[in-house]
Structure formats: structure tokens, C-alpha cells
Amino acid sequence: MDEIKSQADAAMRVAASGMRAQQARMRIIAENLANANSTARTAGGDPYRRQAPVFEPSAVGGGQGVRMSRVEPDQGAFRSTYDPGHPAADPAGYVKLPNVDPLIEALDMKEAQRAYEANLNVIETARAMEMRTLDLLKR
Predict the structure, then answer these.
(1) 108-129 per-position pLDDT tens digit
(2) What is the rounded distance in angstroms from the CA atom of residue 97 to the CA atom of residue 100?
């Protein structure tokens, strides 16, 4: 019985680490979306640069989980638009826009939500199995 409980607890801890990682990922995606139309504060300056989470394996009591180790700026090219009257326009009249694609961010958000839900299902299933085992042992 103790081994079953230990395995269920390990599965729940691993799934919880995945949930925390996806939650952090969703925060970064929300920040990217919030800054999708930000421009530089100075003429010719660089606007907001898309951020990307970096995950790494993490030991979690009895298993291998995941954690977000850092956030790195996306080195992709900025978009630009011609708007000579804009305060952030360079001498040629072009304004740099963030390298954030709202469609990509929306798809990443959906993927993060699904991964979060999958980890939640693991926890719910492990709890249900644990309870079912207890019920069988009571008989």
C-alpha cells in the first residue's frame, strides 16, 4: 500500500511541476501579447523584444519533473512600418515594431493551456486510483 501511495505522490509531484512550468509560460505569453504593439520610447530605438521561456528537467521527489530555468529574448527580426510622423520613427520614417506575432502567441497559449490541463488530469487520475485502492483494501 505504501508503494502505491508513493508512486501516486510521485506522479502528482511531477504533474504539479509541469503545471507550474506551464503557468509561468502563460505569464510570459501574456506579457508578449500585451506588448505586441509597443514601440520604442526614442526615435529609431528598439521596441519590445518577444520573450521565450526555457525549460529544463528538474528532480522532483521520486521522479523527473520540469521547471522554467530562464527567459530569453527572441532574436528574430523586428517588423517595421512606414510612419514618418510617429515619435519613434527613424530618420527614414520607419518605425520598428515588436517581433511578436499575436497568432503565434495565441497558438502557444492554447498549447500551454492544454499541457496544463493534461497535468491536472494526471493529478486527478492519480488521486482517483489512490482512493480506489484504499476502497479495495477496506473490503
Answers:
(1) 999 999 999 999 999 999 889 8
(2) 8
